[in-house]
Amino acid sequence: PEQKTRKYHRVQINGVGYLPEPPSSCIVRAVPSRPGAVPVLSGPCAQPPFIPPQGTRDHHPAQMTLLGRLLGTVVSCFKRHGAAAIDTPVMELREMLMEKYGDNSKLIYELQDQGGELLALRYDLTVPFARYLAMNKITNIKRYHIAKVYRRDSPAMTRGRYREFYQCDFDIAGQFDPMIPDAECLKIVHEILSELQIGDFLIKVNDRRILNGMFAICGIPESKLVTMCSTLDKLDKMPWEEVRSEMVGEKGLSPEAVDRVGEYVQLHGGMDLIEQLLQDPKLSQNKMAKEGLEDMKLLFEYLTLFGITGKVSFDLSLARGLDYYTGVIYEAVLLQQQNNHGEESVGVGSVAGGGRYDGLVGMFDPKGRKVPCVGVSIGIERIFSILEHRMKASREKVRTTETQVMVATPQKHLLSARLKLISELWDAGIKAEMMYRKDPKLLKQLQYCEDTGIPLVAIIGEEELKDGVVKLRDVATREEVNIPREELAAEIRRRLEP
Amino acid sequence: PEQKTRKYHRVQINGVGYLPEPPSSCIVRAVPSRPGAVPVLSGPCAQPPFIPPQGTRDHHPAQMTLLGRLLGTVVSCFKRHGAAAIDTPVMELREMLMEKYGDNSKLIYELQDQGGELLALRYDLTVPFARYLAMNKITNIKRYHIAKVYRRDSPAMTRGRYREFYQCDFDIAGQFDPMIPDAECLKIVHEILSELQIGDFLIKVNDRRILNGMFAICGIPESKLVTMCSTLDKLDKMPWEEVRSEMVGEKGLSPEAVDRVGEYVQLHGGMDLIEQLLQDPKLSQNKMAKEGLEDMKLLFEYLTLFGITGKVSFDLSLARGLDYYTGVIYEAVLLQQQNNHGEESVGVGSVAGGGRYDGLVGMFDPKGRKVPCVGVSIGIERIFSILEHRMKASREKVRTTETQVMVATPQKHLLSARLKLISELWDAGIKAEMMYRKDPKLLKQLQYCEDTGIPLVAIIGEEELKDGVVKLRDVATREEVNIPREELAAEIRRRLEP
């Protein structure tokens, strides 16, 4: 409970989800009972170790390489669908963020009042996007935004749940014919999850209008609709019995009404279920639910044309936690276990989610002008943590630099020659390194190439200087050829750029 | 002075440095006297407009395109020099950041105490890098880090000075032979500023040891050395007379000592000046200064081999504001005026800076183990604001998306055909868009291509469907050819990918 213990507790998060060596001056005090959790480290430390704040972590070069690949896949998909990039500040006026996230508002990081405006860190990219649209009077845009967001949540870092994490958002704003942009968002989720090859997945779909209609016919008062969605959203983390008792207890709903809800939320399927519910005597009488179901039918028609209904399930238990959704909502979950290290690995949870929010932009417009929006957010952190586990398990060695050639000298007193040659290569656009020593041993220079995966060595000695050549060595084959100095850059390019 | 006015004042920052249309409900209340400053806007507004916090701004798609190009140039230079990427959290433990930035510590954004750790937003990328090295016991790395940092400074946004801004840092950590990595940092500044073609520049170089030696022989007490550097650093913003009176007044130094300093800080030159100062009877007697001058000589030898001394000036007035520098320091400034819009445009100031900080890592290590470091930070925001001005002036139209083909239909009732075709193209990796309408007019679809720069249109009508072809239209030439449907993706690729 006390602050200090928690602080040391986190030393081991370096290297997502793995236990690095604890600081030598600390000792392991207690191994926690929850399986998969990390041991608690504690003093006596000479001074508090300086580590990243709870729920955040550094990214090492190998992680950055993996993250770069992942984000590259996401960005190229967003660009394939014609999106433009925007960026917004990490902090926003506090007032602007409030009352947009329901129960979750308490998770917003606030900045200290140091004189001036009251600020907070963004909780997601959707509310800033809506603010951006309203402020600039934009009524029509397809944009993506990849940036970090901040939540004072309880971190579960082995499962990729952090307090600072990337969101990768794609949104379509504008007044269009129903369900066409909505279907594209699902296509995007399908494309990205397929390309990333992280195993089998399922995209659950529902509609806030169907949920609200369902709640209404079950006898839930209208004032409780928003909170019902937040509570229902917990179904993926706790069993129905617990959700039920929260609804009856905390939320004060009648057990009968909640039990009627309980029957509906078990339903999931495809076009057949949509047709069935459109025939449901009670649900089809509700205007909201009927609209939602008809749009859901249209959505499934479009998804059929996209050829992706095999991985999409209309699921009445899907609610999504956030307040601002007004229409279709969706969430992608991974189906397979990712590894065999015990309970912790089962169910990495949602890896993408989103929906339609037609009212949010209007909240920021002085005249309340609405701009209909639909979007999707890719949960890159959870995917990252799965791929990182997999990479570590495969012991695949990742290159963290792209250096093409090492500039080396075989004798002493040749630093000037090395500096001059490497400078020529840099100016020719070649990625080149050299050792920061006056007289390094040739063996050390070659060893550095082996260690870091540099494929070529440009060796310049007395002989080569005299002849105006450079000895180009292939690190893998150990083959060496003399190349006229003025052709060196072209030769390196020829060998490495296919 | 009151909060509200300041708030509205900032509405016009949308579009860096330009005045967009103020909110229609606001009126211009006062035009400030300082030339180039933005007019103060004020009420009566229906409600406070939701805008980004003071000193921060959104990036629009065209700005993101420009920023992407800029960062691309910087990253490829860093990679050309063999650097690996790392990332650290935007927030750090408050305690970790304190006492690293001298007088500037008051500019650190602190987070509210919401229970848990006391946090603050990073002020630069250097201190988190040092923390990262110490925590992970890394003694040897060449890394780059591109991320936003936060300073509660008075913003001057037309000149690219913000409270949230990118830093692009390249650093070399490790124990090496003198001045080799230091010279590479200057080479990097030279490469990046040359490639970006932002006009003529000068890299000023000095050494903290030379400065300290100079202060000592001028009779400045040792306890004032650090604060002298902060004050001297203001020389690029105010004339010597003002700096002098701050030294004498606020800092309480003797006028005679300050005047002796005043003579030295006028000196700048190249190898000749280094040789001259090495002969200076007083300066060469000071151990620190002598070490610094000898290393400076070595540095200039290496820079000569790199062929970049033409743009490097050894300048005794250069001090750099930050506490942590221990050796060579440098700063690049643009020499030319960027445009002719008045005073504001003169001197965009420093566009890159850095130096050696051999003691910083030791401050985070429980045993005080030092890791020598040298690095450089590229001031991308100022360069961005210059290039953005230039782009606006040239009225060059920037494409903000990369869409290759528009999928269009010439008749009604063909939404399904469009959806099916675009889905095939996406799956083949083609960047494709369509209008989100059931039955858009062909003209509208073609107009969209003109507006957004999409080069090709894939038209699918009744006829094409029947024949199993797609009509591929070149937007520029208006030429149309029928392509067998199964060859469409390959044909688009052939036409656009050289």
From TrEMBL, chains A, B:
GO terms of molecular function: ATP binding; histidine-tRNA ligase activity; identical protein binding; RNA binding
Keywords tagged on the record: Aminoacyl-tRNA synthetase, ATP-binding, Ligase, Nucleotide-binding, Protein biosynthesis
Entry's EC annotation: 6.1.1.21
InterPro entries according to UniProt: aa-tRNA-synth_II (IPR006195), aa-tRNA-synth_II/BPL/LPL (IPR045864), Anticodon-bd (IPR004154), Anticodon-bd_dom_sf (IPR036621), His-tRNA-ligase (IPR015807), HisRS-like_core (IPR041715), HisRS/HisZ (IPR004516), HisRS_anticodon (IPR033656)
GO CC, any one term: cytosol
Positions annotated to bind L-histidine: 124-126, 151, 167, 171, 320, 324-325
Aminoacyl-transfer RNA synthetases class-II family profile domain location: 54-410
One Pfam family hit: tRNA-synt_His
Family annotation (CDD domains): HisRS-like_core, HisRS_anticodon
Catalysed reactions, semicolon-separated: tRNA(His) + L-histidine + ATP = L-histidyl-tRNA(His) + AMP + diphosphate + H(+)
PANTHER family: HISTIDINE--TRNA LIGASE, HISTIDYL-TRNA SYNTHETASE
Family note: Belongs to the class-II aminoacyl-tRNA synthetase family.
Protein name: histidine--tRNA ligase
Native source organism of the sequence: Coturnix japonica
